């Protein structure tokens, strides 16, 4: 056959569209993964929110919280010790002492005209009324001429220092509170008789601090004796509330109110001579007692409102 008559060679077809198809499948796979992630997070979100605690609130800023109350109280006490004690013969010395507490170019006597005499006793801190982070009024109590009074001292602070920011003011002392009458609970007379015997042995050991004290104490008690500052004279009164009353102690314990008469060891002599009558001091205690193989004392404290009962 002649070369010119040979049929033309067939041309190989390329992979039409194959490259685009695999890209389509890859895109679909990525899309499904994205959809699954969105669905899973959407389902899990309510449960996560339910188990998570509430969002922490930002702490409230107290504008008066940073005022240095302890330092201001000490400063005001020192100032008041000078301010409330004066004598016309030492006015100049008082002015020099007050200068450390007052702003410059202030009345050097802080309101005193330089005449007469004043003396304050029993000067104590009563409290601090904070105005803001720089200002407060320090309240002090004292005795002037035997009468209780309150002294309010305005104080300003800056950079760790203090100054009296205004003239102090004398105010009336807080009034005495009226103690309400508290009815005595119904007593358990039988138990009172039993515990009287225990306490009659406990209180002498408590007064002396004798090692025998331990035999009266519960294993969890942390009670130390008085080391002989008083001597036991008598158990004047005891009250044990009946079970079921509001005053009865929980958990099988018993609350006991006991009035004891002490003989103060330091008061047995006056001026080196024996006094005609023995000194005596009555005090009322609240004891918590528990029953084991016998009755033990777990705690001893002052009895609240024993005057009102």
Automatic annotation (TrEMBL):
Q: Which organism is it from?
A: Allonocardiopsis opalescens
Keywords in UniProt for this one?
Membrane, Transmembrane, Transmembrane helix
Regions that span the bilayer: 22-43
InterPro entries linked: TcpC, TcpC_C
**Protein's recorded name:** Conjugative transposon protein TcpC
Per the UniProt record, one Pfam family is: TpcC
């Amino acid at each position: 056959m002649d070369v010119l008559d040979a049929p033309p060679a067939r041309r190989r077809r390329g992979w039409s569209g194959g490259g685009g198809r695999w890209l389509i499948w890859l895109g679909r796979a990525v899309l499904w993964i994205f959809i699954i992630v969105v669905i899973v997070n959407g389902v899990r979100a309510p449960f996560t929110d339910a188990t998570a605690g509430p969002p922490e609130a930002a702490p409230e800023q107290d504008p008066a919280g940073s005022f240095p109350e302890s330092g201001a109280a000490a400063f005001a006490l020192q100032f008041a010790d000078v301010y409330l004690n004066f004598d016309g013969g030492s006015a100049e010395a008082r002015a020099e002492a007050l200068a450390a507490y007052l702003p410059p170019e202030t009345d050097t006597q802080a309101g005193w005209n330089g005449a007469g005499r004043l003396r304050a006793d029993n000067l104590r801190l009563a409290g601090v009324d904070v105005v803001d982070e720089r200002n407060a009024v320090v309240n002090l109590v004292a005795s002037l001429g035997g009468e209780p009074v309150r002294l309010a001292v305005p104080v300003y602070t800056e950079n760790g220092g203090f100054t009296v920011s205004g003239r102090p003011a004398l105010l009336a002392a807080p009034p005495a509170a009226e103690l309400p009458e508290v009815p005595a609970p119904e007593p358990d007379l039988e138990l009172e008789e039993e515990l009287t015997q225990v306490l009659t042995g406990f209180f002498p050991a408590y007064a002396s601090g004798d090692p025998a004290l331990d035999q009266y104490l519960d294993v969890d008690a942390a009670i130390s004796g008085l080391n002989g500052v008083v001597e036991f004279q008598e158990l004047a009164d005891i009250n044990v509330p009946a079970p079921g009353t509001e005053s009865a102690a929980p958990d099988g314990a018993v609350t006991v109110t006991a009035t004891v008469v002490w003989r103060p060891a330091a008061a047995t002599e006056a001026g080196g001579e024996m006094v005609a009558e023995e000194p005596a001091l009555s005090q009322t205690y609240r004891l918590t007692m528990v029953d084991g193989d016998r009755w033990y004392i777990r705690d001893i404290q002052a009895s609240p409102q024993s005057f009102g009962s």
